[in-house]
Write a structure and sequence with these properties.
alpha+beta, six-stranded mixed β-sheet, two-stranded antiparallel ribbon, 27% strand
């Protein structure tokens, strides 16, 4: 949901998000627009399943930080709130304690909560900007139980229920069965 149809600056976005009436809401800054972060119980459940699997792997191997949608990131000057994200200790030993993390994540997981055309357009902008800074993006599609994996300079990989996603270069050795993401 776009808040208003005009182009904002980063400073205007940050002032907007700090207003008392917005204290309990999450927003993204995409293409100069302020966008409310949509969610629903199914998206939350899927994010927890993916986040728990990644967190267990990351903690076991002492690799970095895993955050949920409340852990926003600065990406190409914009502000994103991926449903799940990973950033390595090598890239950033300590996370920011307030505001949006100044460095983009190594991996961003975006779970589709709606397939409206305006949200598809925003998602394309986000994916393009993530890839420009080297972030790997998983786009999770609950409706058809698929996961798209976007890596800069590579063709998009589509994983279906019978497939297993690997962590690739970002989380070497990590694997997650797609069927486990969409468990009942």
């Amino acid at each position: 949901m776009t808040i208003q149809e005009r182009i904002y600056t980063v400073d205007e976005f940050e002032a907007f998000t700090e207003l008392p009436e917005n204290a309990d809401s999450l927003f993204e800054f995409i293409g100069g627009e302020i966008v409310g972060v949509p969610s629903n119980p199914l998206v939350s459940k899927i994010a927890m399943i993916i986040g728990a699997a990644i967190l267990a792997f990351v903690q076991k191997h002492k690799l970095g930080h895993v955050t949920g949608e409340a852990g926003g990131y600065v990406v190409s000057g914009e502000r994103y709130a991926p449903d799940v994200a990973f950033i390595s200790y090598e890239k950033q030993p300590e996370l920011a304690s307030q505001g949006y993390n100044p460095n983009p994540p190594d991996l961003a997981v975006e779970i589709i909560s709606s397939n409206r055309s305006d949200e598809r357009d925003k998602r394309r902008i986000k994916i393009t900007n993530y890839l420009a800074v080297g972030t790997v993006v998983w786009v999770v599609k609950p409706e058809n139980k698929q996961v798209e994996v976007h890596v800069s300079g590579a063709a998009v990989m589509i994983y279906r229920e019978k497939d297993t996603i690997s962590g690739g270069m970002v989380l070497s050795g990590f694997e997650l069965k797609v069927v486990d993401i969409f468990q009942n």
